[in-house]
Glycolate oxidase (Methylocapsa palsarum), 495 residues
Amino acid sequence: MQAIEIDHDVLSRRATIVAALKKIVPGEGVIDAAIGRRAYESDAFTARRALPMVVVLPETVDQVRAVLAYCHENNVKVAPRGAGTSLSGGALPLEDGVLLSMMKFNRIKEIDFDDRIAVVEPGVTNLAITRAVEHRGFYYAPDPSSQIACSIGGNVAENSGGVHCLKYGLTTNNVLGVELVLMTGEIVRLGGRWLDQDGYDLLGLVVGSEGMLGVVTEVIVRILRAPETARALMIAFDSSEAAGACVADVIAAGIIPGGMEMMDRPAIAAVEDFVHAGYPREAEALLIVELDGPPVEVDHLVGLVEAIALKRGATQCRISTSNEERLLFWAGRKAAFPAVGRLSPDYLCMDGTIPRKQLPRVLAGMRDLSEKHGLRVANVFHAGDGNLHPLILYDANKPGELQAAEDFGADILRLCVEVGGVLTGEHGVGVEKRDLMPVMFNEVDLDHQIRVKCAFDAKHLLNPGKVFPQLRRCAELGKLHVHAGNLPFPDLPRF
C-alpha cells in the first residue's frame, strides 16, 4: 500500500500549532500528550495505525470553523473522525495533521413528528435517534451492525446501510440536509427539511464523500413510522448457490423484504456459539428474510417466500411466531462480526457489491480464492442488494498472513468488479481500497472526481491519502492560476 509522504515542516511547527489550537478550543479540548493520542491511532480497520500529531475535540460550530480556517491558513492537514467504527480506514489519523473528533457534538436538537424529521448533531449515535422517537411509533431506518456505537456523522461520511437498507435505503436516502464547514472555515447548508431540492444535488455529493469535502456539524434525517407488524423467516440450504438463487427468485417475484441477509456455514457456527439464536449448524447457508407492513399483507408474503424457498430446495424454513423470536433471529446477524472474531485472532471485513444474479458465481469464486491464499473466509452479507461482507480470517502474529489477507481481499474486490459490481457498498474506500480504484475507474474518471475535491478543498488538506490512489494537485488538472507572476501555494512541490 502506497505510503503518504509526511510533511516535516508541519511537524517542526507542532508546538506552535498546538498552542494556537488550545486558544481556539480551551480546557480539555486539545489532546497533545502521546498517551492520550494513542486512543485515536486507528479506527475499526485495525490493520493500519498512525499516531495523530494532535487531537482536537470541538464543542461548537464556531470552534470547528476556527480550527479549519487556522489549518487552511497554515497548511495543516485535518482528518475528521466520528466514533471510529470505520472499516476502511476512513478515520485513520495523520502523523502530520490534526485529528478532529466530532463526538462532543452529541445532541438531538429537534424532533418534528409532523414533518417526520429529526435534527441531530453528528456525534449522535445511529441507534440513539430511534430510541428518541420510538415512544411515538417512529424509527430511523438505516441500521448498521455497529448502530449502538457508530455516529450519524460517520454514517453520512460513508453512506452507511444496514440490514434493512434493501427496502428503506441507505443513509443517502434518509438524509434531507446537512450543515457543512468547508476547509476554509466557510459554513454552508445543503438540503433542508423538505424531501425535494432544486438545483444541483450537492447533498448527494457530500453523503459518502468520506470526510474529504467538509466537516458535517448538523444533520437532518427522515424518521419513519414503524410498520404495523414484522415477521422473519430463517431458511436453511445445503449450498450457498441454492441460497443465492432463492434471493434472486424472491426479488424477481416482486417481493421487497424489509431485510434479507445471508450467512455461510463458518459464520452460522460462530454466531450460534455466540448468541444461541437456534441457527441450524448443519446448514451450508442461512437466509434471514423479514417482511413488514399490514398483518394481512405480511402473512401473504411470508407464504410466498416460504414457497419460493422450498422450491429452491430449502432444508429448513422456520417462521417467527412472536416479535421476541424475530428479534432473536436478527440478534445473531447483528452479532456476526464479534462472533466471527472468536474464530481467529484477526480478520479483515471486506465490502463489495455485486448484481444479485452473480451471487452463486462469486461465492464459488471466493472458495477458490480461499484455497489460493490459504486463509479461511466467513461470509455475512446483505443478500437482497448484493452487498457482500466476506470476513477473511488471519493471524497478524504469523509472518506474511496480514499481506496474504489483504491480497485475498483485493482479489475478492476485483472479482466483484469483474462481474459488474463495485468496490464498496457502505464501508467506503478509505485507505483499504484506495489502491484498487483504478480497477473500477480509468484515469479520466479519477481526474473528474479529484476536480470535485478541488472545488471544495483546493489545498487537499481534508482527509488526504484516502480514496485516491495517487496524489494529484488541482494544478495538474489544467487549472493553474498565475497572478502577477506568482504561483498559488508556492510551498507545494510541482511535478
Observations:
- The longest strand covers residues 229-237.
- The chain is about 35% helix and 20% strand.
- The first helix runs from residue 8 to 12.
